[in-house]
């Protein structure tokens, strides 16, 4: 990696494991500043071998440069949570160190600054997903809370049987995350709404034709994922929205696995609601957001009650604030929201199209390598000209429990993957398995990470085979 | 009548996740005085295996010793809740009032856990089963660092299941027996330490309170 950031004479020795902690930090600061002012694609080594986005980005993530159980950490669990770059951690630290104060209430300097930064973060999120107005962004604790907000606030008032005395219909898929199933079950128990689930077709993706046929006049809501955290497939949200709107139904998009990895434009999608989590997109935990179209949010009753969301409070009644405040009761996760804004900045600086392009390449590499390991069954569609997979693979190895696999990978090789049902029990039941292993990548992973994983996987399979 | 609170028997501090020290100098574990000898032996054995991979191998060896479980025992009632792997636990009380356990799992490592637990507790008296604490098993933990409570902590889940179902069988036997007079107080101490936080003293008006829907106090089964 010679030739990059020539001002730094010690840059040659920037192999992460070789460098001391203090110098890594200072070099990384300079590097990330330099990077912002120059295009990443201009980074070329003296050997003319372009350095991948993964290699360049890794330097911003100190947590990736460590050993676990005597091996270099290979973190392949970004679908569960992503790692955070230095700039996001600095933003959080700065908030608490220099201007921590409660927002929206105080008059003093610190409070005004905190409020400004908090609202600026809201604008950054709005811009990140191309919402037309930052008031369409409601900060929540995470995507799960955002879906619950829609379920309790919009769902309870809109999913009741109407004059026709026929139960309103909510359409989901069997591949939904629990957070996009359970709230609707709770609502349906209260309102009598009926839930119907789209199953998978022979390519192991939700059957779009079935979805289209299911949509009828009775449909009030279609709540679906954008990208599946197990199957790695994506749904054609724009088309689904058109079909739904034709019958007057609303669409909620669970974008947890799409917003961090690709350009998501809510105006283009025309979805009514969209949810995402900060912690999957290089932001901190404890914050997520709901995007809702203004007219919908304006008509929705509050979700949680308390301070911030009120206009006037009397003993026997209260009046409520306008959205988004109406849905943000209590003191928000201020520092976290600001750090989420910093995450949006960081990702935008790299460019979401660039991140997506890199991940498509990684996804193909991961799939090909994994598919070549004997006795491995990968779930979801095969990648092709028309089918792009996300950079994750849920899989099983014949005769080896995914938990045993994940344990061995961690203990013996320092490879971090996930095993279990990935909050998608109905999907696993549908696929006829109890659990699966999942390796999920993000733009700070490299092909070398995939190679390490595959070597470790082969070693694990032969280790357990030797006990049979 | 036992005037000291029977709850004291089980009032160990809540199991808090503590970081595993990198130092190899482990402090002497404070075992419950009533702990089965086999547990001490097993813990010593695992403590001598300082490389985690050696523990995995040892567990896999123990897994091979586990007697297979018939399909008839692989029923939902025998599933151990909270495990990410499937674990079935079959438990009976024999004619001498001792607990007999059989188990199986679809995961080799979990099988190894079960094999160890069964070696320790098969044929034990109910109070011996109840006296084992999760932290006594922590030294044998594999794949879950330190003493963390997490949903993958099969040791805890299987042990909890063994203890809960032991209590149920004990209660059933006791109730069947109580037609011929009240069971001795010390056996109720055993129960009520786990049952809804009520002490024997409170429910000593002649009513037996067998509220066993609440589990021993500080374990969390949520997924």
Automatic annotation (TrEMBL), chain A:
Its cofactor is pyridoxal 5'-phosphate. Its EC number is 2.8.1.7. Keywords: Pyridoxal phosphate, Transferase. InterPro entries: Aminotrans_V_dom, Cys_dSase_SufS, PyrdxlP-dep_Trfase, PyrdxlP-dep_Trfase_major, PyrdxlP-dep_Trfase_small. Residues 74-453 form the Aminotransferase class V domain. It is an enzyme of class 2 (transferase). Pfam families: Aminotran_5. Coiled coil: none annotated. It catalyses: (sulfur carrier)-H + L-cysteine = (sulfur carrier)-SH + L-alanine. SUPFAM superfamilies: PLP-dependent transferases. This is cysteine desulfurase. It comes from Brassica napus. The lineage of its organism: Eukaryota, Viridiplantae, Streptophyta, Embryophyta, Tracheophyta.
TrEMBL record, chain B:
Residues 44-164 form the Fe-S metabolism associated domain. InterPro entries: Fe-S_metab-assoc_dom. It comes from the Eukaryota. Belongs to the SufE family. This is Fe-S metabolism associated domain-containing protein. It comes from Brassica napus.
């Amino acid at each position: 990696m010679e030739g990059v950031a020539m001002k730094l004479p010690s840059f040659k020795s920037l192999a992460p494991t070789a460098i001391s902690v203090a110098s890594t930090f200072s070099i990384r600061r300079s590097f990330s500043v330099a990077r912002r002012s120059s295009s990443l694609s201009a980074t070329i080594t003296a050997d003319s071998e372009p350095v991948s986005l993964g290699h360049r980005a890794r330097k911003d993530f100190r947590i990736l440069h460590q050993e676990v159980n005597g091996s270099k950490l290979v973190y392949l669990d970004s679908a569960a949570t992503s790692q955070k770059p230095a700039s996001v951690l600095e933003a959080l630290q700065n908030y608490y160190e220099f201007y921590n104060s409660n927002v929206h209430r105080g008059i003093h300097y610190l409070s005004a600054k905190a409020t400004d930064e908090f609202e600026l973060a809201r604008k950054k999120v709005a811009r990140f997903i191309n919402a037309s107005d930052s008031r369409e962004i409601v900060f929540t604790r995470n995507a799960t809370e955002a879906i619950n907000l829609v379920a309790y606030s919009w769902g309870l008032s809109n999913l009741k049987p109407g004059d026709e005395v026929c139960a309103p219909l909510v359409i989901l898929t069997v591949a939904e995350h629990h957070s996009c199933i359970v709230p609707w079950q709770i609502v349906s128990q209260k309102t009598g709404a009926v839930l119907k689930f789209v199953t998978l077709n022979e390519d192991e993706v939700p059957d779009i034709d079935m979805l289209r046929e299911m949509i009828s006049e009775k449909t009030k809501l279609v709540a679906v994922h954008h990208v599946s955290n197990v199957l790695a497939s994506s749904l054609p949200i724009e088309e689904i929205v058109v079909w739904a709107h034709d019958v007057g139904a609303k669409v909620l998009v669970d974008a947890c696995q799409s917003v961090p990895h690709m350009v998501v434009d809510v105006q283009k999608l025309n979805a009514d609601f969209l949810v995402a989590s900060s912690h999957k997109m290089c932001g901190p935990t404890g914050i997520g957001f709901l995007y809702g179209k203004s007219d919908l949010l304006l008509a929705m009753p509050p979700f949680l009650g308390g301070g911030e969301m009120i206009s006037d409070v009397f003993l026997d009644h209260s009046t409520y604030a306008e959205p988004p405040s109406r849905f943000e009761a209590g003191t928000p996760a201020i520092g976290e929201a600001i750090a989420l804004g910093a995450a949006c900045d960081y990702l935008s600086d790299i460019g979401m199209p660039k991140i997506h392009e890199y991940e498509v390449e990684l996804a193909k590499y991961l799939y090909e390598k994994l598919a070549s390991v004997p006795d491995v069954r990968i779930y979801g569609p095969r990648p092709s000209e028309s089918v792009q997979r996300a950079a994750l693979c849920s899989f099983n190895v014949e005769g080896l429990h995914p938990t045993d696999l994940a344990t061995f990978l961690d203990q013996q090789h320092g490879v971090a993957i996930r095993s279990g049902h990935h909050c998608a029990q109905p999907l696993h039941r549908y696929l006829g398995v109890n659990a699966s292993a999942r390796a999920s990548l993000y733009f700070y992973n490299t092909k070398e990470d995939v190679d390490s994983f595959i070597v470790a996987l082969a070693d694990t399979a032969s280790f357990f085979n030797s006990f049979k | 009548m036992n005037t000291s609170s029977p709850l004291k028997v089980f009032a160990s501090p809540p199991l808090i996740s503590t970081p595993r020290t990198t130092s190899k100098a482990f402090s002497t574990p404070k075992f419950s005085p009533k702990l089965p000898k086999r547990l001490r032996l097993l813990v010593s054995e695992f403590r001598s295996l300082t490389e985690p991979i050696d523990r995995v191998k040892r567990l896999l060896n123990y897994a091979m010793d586990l007697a297979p479980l018939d399909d008839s025992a692989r029923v939902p009632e025998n599933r151990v809740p909270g495990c990410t792997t499937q674990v079935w636990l079959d438990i009976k009380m024999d004619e001498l009032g001792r607990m007999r356990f059989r188990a199986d799992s679809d995961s080799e490592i979990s099988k190894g856990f079960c094999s160890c637990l069964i070696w320790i507790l098969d044929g034990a008296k109910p109070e011996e089963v109840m006296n084992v604490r999760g932290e006594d098993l922590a030294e044998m933990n594999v794949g879950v660092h330190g003493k963390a409570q997490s949903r993958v902590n099969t040791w805890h889940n299987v042990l909890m299941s063994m203890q809960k179902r032991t209590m149920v069988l004990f209660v059933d036997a006791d109730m069947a027996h109580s037609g011929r007079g009240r069971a001795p107080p010390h056996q109720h101490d055993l129960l009520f330490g786990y049952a809804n936080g009520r002490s024997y003293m409170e429910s000593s008006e002649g009513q037996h309170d067998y509220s066993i829907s609440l589990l021993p106090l500080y374990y969390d089964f949520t997924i």
